[in-house]
Automatic annotation (TrEMBL):
The lineage of its organism: Bacteria, Pseudomonadati, Pseudomonadota, Alphaproteobacteria, Rhodospirillales. InterPro entries: DUF1835. It comes from the Bacteria. It comes from Pelagibius litoralis. This is DUF1835 domain-containing protein. Residues 24-133 form the DUF1835 domain.
Length: 344
């Protein structure tokens, strides 16, 4: 998408507090919007939240075609998210907002350390790298911990006062950060996990949370021993540890099991549902977040490392730019080696 000015009637800018300087805050969700207002932080707010950590990312497609494909994916896949037309309108408004950055003298990106945020961040910075006229206006708040918060999951869990404490700590986006984001975004969307690993090994830490976030991304590849991605394995583990409903499975993963929480409930739902609706299910059927849920015999075999998901169930999902289909994925995650490997 080129950052040319676009004539549109409505942009998805939300007002925060009056300011003599035109300030824009960009966030990959609306979770901190009300708290920023309550904290008295000045400016306007733009949500840019296409969840590029999941779903199709074919780099050969035009921006318009890919946007429509992603809207179809989000509407069809995410739990109670809305129809494709509404999702497409939202994605179009987000991208249109990015064409209007010339209205603002200061642009602040608010992002945390997890995969969801970091994937959106590198997409944004790779795009903005092509618009040097905005570079001296761009600032970044990019954090992985907050004093007094034992298990920091994200900015959305912070109080207005804690967000106010972050305001003023934003740093100018550096040329090295633009370059690193561009390299990683290109590698992320190529569909070659081994190339992504090579690029990660050469990063200089300009964006310090990228390496662990991208490693977590690679762990969603089918694992060599089970054929399941890490989130699916954590779901089975949560059931084995006593969770009895989909809601409790999600809560246990987020509270204790997930090493780098990044999924919202709407994004987790299709992963769990896929374990129940496959030809050889790993969990029992369920209808809502409070429905009873348990492991099947096959699920217990998977959890014990005595069975492989892809021996019985075909794959059909995207890992970055890689579309996994069928029973023989071209790449796997090798837990012993701690890296992605070719499936030979």
């Amino acid at each position: 998408m080129a950052l040319a000015e676009t004539n549109i009637d409505k942009i998805a800018f939300l007002p925060l507090n009056p300011s003599t300087e035109p300030i824009l805050h960009i966030r990959c969700g609306s979770d901190i919007y009300e708290d920023l207002r309550e904290a008295g932080i000045p400016g306007s707010f733009l949500e840019v939240s296409d969840p590029v950590c999941q779903g199709p990312l074919d780099p050969s497609l035009s921006e318009e075609v890919l946007r429509r494909q992603r809207a179809d994916f989000i509407a069809a896949t995410y739990h109670e998210i809305g129809d494709a037309a509404a999702v497409l309108a939202k994605l179009e408004a987000e991208d249109a907002g990015l064409t209007q950055l010339g209205r603002f003298g200061k642009i602040v990106l608010w992002f945390e350390h997890d995969l969801y945020d970091q994937a959106i961040l590198i997409r944004l910075l790779a795009l903005l790298r092509t618009a040097p006229q905005f570079h001296d206006r761009l600032f970044l708040i990019n954090i992985g911990a907050v004093p007094g918060v034992d298990r920091f999951v994200g900015l959305g869990q912070l109080s207005p006062q804690q967000l106010a404490n972050l305001w003023g700590q934003e740093k100018p986006v550096s040329p090295a950060q633009f370059d690193e984001a561009d390299r990683l975004w290109r590698a992320y969307t190529t569909g070659d996990p081994l190339h992504l690993q090579e690029v990660l090994q050469k990063t200089d830490g300009a964006l310090p949370f990228l390496v662990p976030a991208m490693k977590r991304h690679l762990q969603e590849l089918p694992w060599r021993d089970t054929g399941l991605g890490l989130t699916e394995q954590l779901a089975l583990k949560a059931l084995a540890e006593g969770a009895e409903t989909p809601g409790r499975v999600f809560a246990l993963i987020m509270e204790n099991l997930e090493p780098l929480p990044y999924l919202g409930d709407a994004m987790f739902w299709p992963l769990l549902a896929g374990l129940a609706t496959a030809p050889q299910p790993a969990v029992t059927a369920f209808s809502d977040w409070r429905a009873p849920l348990s492991l099947t015999d096959f699920g217990r075999e998977l959890l014990g490392g005595r069975a492989c998901w892809t021996d019985h169930n075909p794959l059909d999902r995207w890992i970055g730019g890689l579309h996994l289909k069928g029973n023989h994925p071209p790449y796997l995650w090798d837990p012993g080696a701690g890296q992605a490997v070719t499936n030979t």
